[in-house]
Amino acid sequence: MVLSFADLFCGAGGLSYGFKSRKHKLLLAIDEDKYAIDTFKYNFKNLNSKIYHSKIQDYLKNNNLTGLKLDLVMGGPPCQGFSTANRQNIINDPRNKLYKYFIKFINITKPRYVLIENVLGITKKAQDIVEAFNKINYFLKFDILQASDFEIPQNRKRVFFFGVNKEDLFFKNKVESFFDLLKVKKKKTYVTKDALYGLPELHAKQKKNDRFYEDIYSGFNILKIKNFKENNYIKLINGNKKVNFIYNHKARYNNKRDIEIFKKLPQGANSTHESIRDIMPYKKRSHIFKDKYFKLDEEKPCKTITAHMKFDCNMYIHPNQARGLTPREAARIQSFPDDYFFSGPLSKCFMQIGNAVPPLLSLQICRSIEIIDRI
After folding, report:
1. Number of H helices, E strands in the chain
2. The 72-75 sheet, strands edge to edge
3. Region(s) of the chain under CATH 3.40.50.150
4. Contact of 104 with 77, CB cutoff 8 Å
5. How many CA atoms does the CB half-sphere of 95 hold within 13 Å?
6. What's the first-to-final CA gap in the chain, in angstroms?
7. CATH architecture of residue range(s) 4-184+358-372
8. Is 4 strand, coil or helix?
9. Torsion angles phi and psi, residue 233, rounded to 5
């Protein structure tokens, strides 16, 4: 059965991508970030879907959802009220109003399934979310999923909630089975070098504050490529599609001191390493800035790709080149295919990539829902 679904707080589309690739029907996507919506529209074009640049509260205010029939509503509503010192229920915390709108959307549209993704901090108050959905007739459970368990070359733990409308006679079995299916061991563990394989070698950009400057030295936003190199991981994320262009493979500007640090650090080393003691600018506060610089180890899964990369990539130094990762390299580590284009300046691209659900994980989640949908 083809599932009709909506993606609220859709970002660049990582969570939706697995469902799109399995030919399910995206009816609605919403996000308040303009660049993320531009990215989403480019990569989900020709689907006859409604894709809105809007805050969810404005969308709910200005649109009548009666009659919108959805099998699944998914999303990752931002939630700031994680503090264990704060005894207020997470749903009633004014900082978490977006969760209220997410629940309101669910209560109006009444989909069969609900899927939520969030950071680990949400576990402190996860039961509040479970109880809030119970009040609108949904049975939810949550678990922590590690990206590296799903053939993704990255250590990235995130919390996923999955819920079923209690009108379904098998709602408990479906929720339990969903998480059991995701625990089945996947085929292979990939590492950082698998994701970086075959991309053109680059150097840190020479010009500062020039987002439009491009050259062969520091990379291009769009590069036509004749002899595309691939390995098993690249074939996996690209779905064996032919690749003619490399997108978003541009290095950032770095000053001479940082480039020297990048050169001296061995793989797997951080700011406290003796090789950079003489030029480390934060050595008096090394206990605070331990990971201000970190060179990735190509033989291990990458550390978590996060939206912090919008500020700098010093914590994501390329294992063999004196520069930080490019958006394309970060996207590959996140398991985005090479033909997935990210819109906006480098900082916005990094933010979109860091906030996204890895598409390979989305694909496995989709397959699990397909299986339990047959129960």
Report:
1. 12, 9
2. 50-53, 25-31, 4-8, 72-75, 113-118, 157-165, 138-146
3. 4-184+358-372
4. no
5. 10
6. 12
7. 3-Layer(aba) Sandwich (3.40)
8. strand
9. -70, -45
The domain made up of 192-355 has a fold known as DNA Methylase; Chain A, domain 2 (3.90.120)
**Tens digit of pLDDT at every position of the chain (375 positions):** 899 999 999 999 999 999 999 999 999 999 999 999 999 999 999 888 999 999 999 999 999 898 899 999 999 988 766 655 556 677 777 667 889 999 999 999 999 999 999 999 899 889 999 999 999 999 999 999 999 999 999 999 999 999 999 999 999 999 999 999 999 877 789 999 999 999 999 999 988 877 778 999 999 999 999 899 999 999 999 998 999 999 999 999 999 999 999 999 999 999 999 999 999 887 666 666 778 899 999 999 999 999 999 999 999 999 999 999 999 999 999 999 999 999 999 999 999 999 999 999 999 999 999 999 999
Catalytic entry in 79, 302, 349, 366: 79
Query: CATH 3.90.120.10: which residues of the chain?
Result: 192-355
For the entire predicted model, the pTM comes to 0.95
Q: What is the 3-state secondary structure (H, E, C) of 125-165?
A: HHHHHHHHHHHCCEEEEEEEEEHHHHCCCECCEEEEEEEEE
β-strands 72-75, 113-118 pairing: parallel
Distance, CA of 281 to CA of 286 (rounded, Å): 9
Dihedral sign computed on CA atoms, order 348, 354, 357, 361: positive
Distance CA 96, CA 116 (A): 14
The two structure tokens encoding residue 27? 């009816």
**Catalytic residue status for 313:** no
User: How many whole angstroms separate alpha carbon 305 and alpha carbon 223?
Assistant: 24
